[in-house]
Specification:
With about 140 residues, the protein is α/β, with parallel strands linked by helices. It contains two helices and eight strands. The strands form two sheets. Strands 1-4-3-2 form a four-stranded mixed β-sheet, covered by helices on one side. A hairpin with a 2-residue loop joins strand 3 and strand 4.
Length: about 140
Amino acid sequence: MNTSIYTYLTFEGNCEEAFNFYKSAFGGEFAYIGRFSEMPPQEGMEFPKELGDKIMHVALPIGNSVLMGSDSCGPQAPKLITGNNFSISVNIDTKEEADQLFGKLSQGGKVIMPMAETFWAAYFGIFTDKFGINWMLNVDNK
């Protein structure tokens, strides 16, 4: 079996801002970005006009992975709850790259554990970004 797991984030109207921020940190280009206004009409599903410019789906390739997301899609969507029950864990090749990415992504957020050597033989750090997303950055010491 050849299986991949991708992280999908849902936002309360600021998905585009968040993904432009992530793109500025990781680099690259969006593989896809679509808005609710671009969706064909669907029976039983009507989106408020103010949702038209919001993100229906965005995909940002990062290495061999893809970070994906969307804005919550109106009144029929479940209420979003920002929680601390998950983190996006990113493995990075060098300490220099890790420090640079940590600095970019944690800007405006809350650092929980600065990048540092750990007892499990890794260079590691934890933070919550300014959008409430938890991140763990890791460089395995070979």
